[in-house]
Amino acid sequence: MKLSQFKFNLPEELIAKYPSHHRDESRLLVVHKKSNELEHKVFKDVLDYFNPKDFFIFNNTKVFPAKLFGNKEKTGAKIEVFLLRELNPEQHLWDVLVNPARKIRIGNKLYFGDNEELVAEVIDNTTSRGRTLRFLYDGPYDEFKKQLFQIGETPIPEYMERGAEPEDFERYQNIFAEKEGAVVAPAAGLHFSRELMKRMQLKDIEYGFLTLHNGLGAYRMIDVEDLSKHKMESEQIIITEELCERVNKAYDEGHNICAVGTSVLRTIETTVSTDGHLKPREGWTNKFIFPPYDFTLTKSLITNFHLPYSTLLMMTCAFGGYEKIMEVYDIAVKEKYRFGAYGDAMLIID
């Protein structure tokens, strides 16, 4: 497959800049793979397509306030810092992106907070844009982390073309988010409300959680035409023994296994065996899924509408079939579905 095959015309007004009023009231486009039937629904209708003992797998990663705005020492130049991951808690070392990167050198100090109460020193240039920062803080680690996150801002995607607002702190987060470490929210899970989760229980639909700490890698522009030459950045994953036992039991009994989001799909495919069984894993994945691709364990997928050329669109096409999904996307544009993390959803099912 070629990068250019994932181009489509997306009017800017269809990119959702704000979430729907209620989590489960966004639109839902249901794609039936075998019959090619399409249905236009509301997201809260999603459970109509599942039976008791079917199994939903969610990503319980938690987004942390990763955007910091500070000033450079001496010049006072405004600097934006995007926290990517914590490298060493004891030394307060973080892997970060800095903008504008050209203004920052090793040894520079950066000041954050209204009263410049938090100071960081640039100690390494890791990539053309990346840096390693050491935060200079003498107090207890818990106090440092609390102060760092109080200063930070919710890292909503750049394509929303706006700053984070108070509402984003709660809405750009799944209600079941638990394991802190993501800088990008698993968007498919944003549609699930507490009422919808309660209805799942009442219908006896099973669910469980794995963890993939979503980084920026899946959202960076691909710079090669031949997709086989693209390398994904590694992201941390955790799949517990308990989840595997429950999922494999449901699979062996013939129930529908639904991946809620492409991050879940990637994590499953990182460890699934050839006989369709999920295996426990704690480590990293850089798996890149694009068409053609054979899935064994996962029978249905809930995902948002993704932007052109994105790896998320490629994964969706791998699951639903390239021609079918690109055709569906054309229909979604005509029907004015909303795209992006705060946009509408699609259910791909047999």
UniProtKB/TrEMBL annotation:
Gene Ontology, cellular component aspect: cytoplasm
E.C. code: 2.4.99.17
Keyword tags: Cytoplasm, Glycosyltransferase, Isomerase, Queuosine biosynthesis, S-adenosyl-L-methionine, Transferase
Pathway(s) this gene product operates in, as recorded in its UniProt entry: tRNA modification; tRNA-queuosine biosynthesis
Localization of this protein: Cytoplasm
InterPro entries cross-referenced by the UniProt entry: QueA, QueA_dom1, QueA_dom2, QueA_sf
HAMAP family in UniProt: QueA (MF_00113)
Function: Transfers and isomerizes the ribose moiety from AdoMet to the 7-aminomethyl group of 7-deazaguanine (preQ1-tRNA) to give epoxyqueuosine (oQ-tRNA).
PANTHER family in the cross-refs: S-ADENOSYLMETHIONINE:TRNA RIBOSYLTRANSFERASE-ISOMERASE (PTHR30307)
Name this protein carries in UniProt: S-adenosylmethionine:tRNA ribosyltransferase-isomerase
Species, as recorded: Fermentimonas caenicola
Name of the gene: queA
